[in-house]
């Protein structure tokens, strides 16, 4: 029963979340250190051993059908640190991208609000009578404008038609 519980615990690690990666790193730290490999027995080519460095961890015989499993275990143990690092890096990049997107959305929202305030101000100024003669043919030729005329120029600029 203890073996079954231990196997269940191993299946609970979710590498897509930081806690799961921490758990996998903990399992890795408890395992025999070093690069794992599979060695064939010189006397019996059907017998292989999983070893970490010069320490034999287990022997596998070809007839047991576990040779492919052993290769998977060795490849997975050796690849796990790089895979966990890549997941951490990807999560960090994703978090930065989300932050940048949030900032861009906030900036766009703030820009939209500012434009709306300028449009509202132009609408308010548009209700005022023209007192500069700018709209009147042959009126005031200097570049000064009243608020009513400035409202029209603001609207033209905001609409991109200037």
Structure description:
With 162 residues, the chain is mainly alpha-helical. The protein has three domains: 30 residues, no CATH class; 83 residues, no CATH class; 35 residues, no CATH class. A three-stranded antiparallel β-sheet has the order 1-2-3, with helices on one face. A hairpin with a 2-residue loop joins strand 2 and strand 3. The N and C termini lie far apart (80 Å).
What order do the strands of the largest sheet run in, or round the barrel if closed? 1-2-3
Q: If you average the pLDDT, what whole number results?
A: 79
* Count of domain modules: 3
Span from first to last CA? 80 Å
- Structural class of the secondary structure composition? mainly alpha
How much helicity do the residues have? Answer: 55-70%
Number of helices: 4
Beta content: 5-15%
Order of helices and strands: HHEEEHH
Poorly predicted regions: 1-5
Number of strands: 3
**Global geometry:** rod-shaped
Taking the sheet with the most strands, its summary is: 3 strands, antiparallel
Q: How much is the radius of gyration in Å?
A: 36 Å
Short description:
With about 160 residues, this protein is mainly alpha-helical.
How are the SSEs ordered, and which strands pair?
Blueprint: H1 2-11, H2 18-30, E1 36-40, E2 47-52, E3 55-61, H3 67-126, H4 147-159
Antiparallel strand pairs: 1-2, 2-3
Helix pairs in contact: 2-3, 3-4
């Amino acid at each position: 029963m203890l073996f079954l519980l231990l196997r269940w615990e191993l299946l609970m690690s979710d590498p897509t979340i930081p806690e799961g990666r921490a758990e996998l790193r903990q399992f890795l730290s408890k395992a025999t250190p070093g690069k794992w490999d599979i060695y064939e027995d010189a006397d019996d080519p059907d017998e292989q051993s999983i070893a970490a460095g010069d320490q034999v961890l287990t022997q596998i015989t070809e007839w047991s059908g576990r040779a492919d499993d052993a290769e998977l275990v060795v490849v997975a143990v050796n690849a796990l640190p790089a895979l966990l690092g890549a997941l951490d890096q990807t999560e960090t990049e994703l978090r930065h991208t989300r932050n940048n997107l949030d900032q861009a959305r906030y900036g766009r929202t703030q820009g939209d609000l500012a434009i709306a305030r300028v449009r509202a101000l132009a609408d308010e100024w548009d209700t005022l009578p023209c007192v500069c003669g700018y709209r009147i043919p042959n009126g005031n030729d200097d570049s000064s404008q009243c608020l009513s005329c400035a409202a029209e120029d603001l609207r033209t600029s905001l609409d991109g038609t200037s």
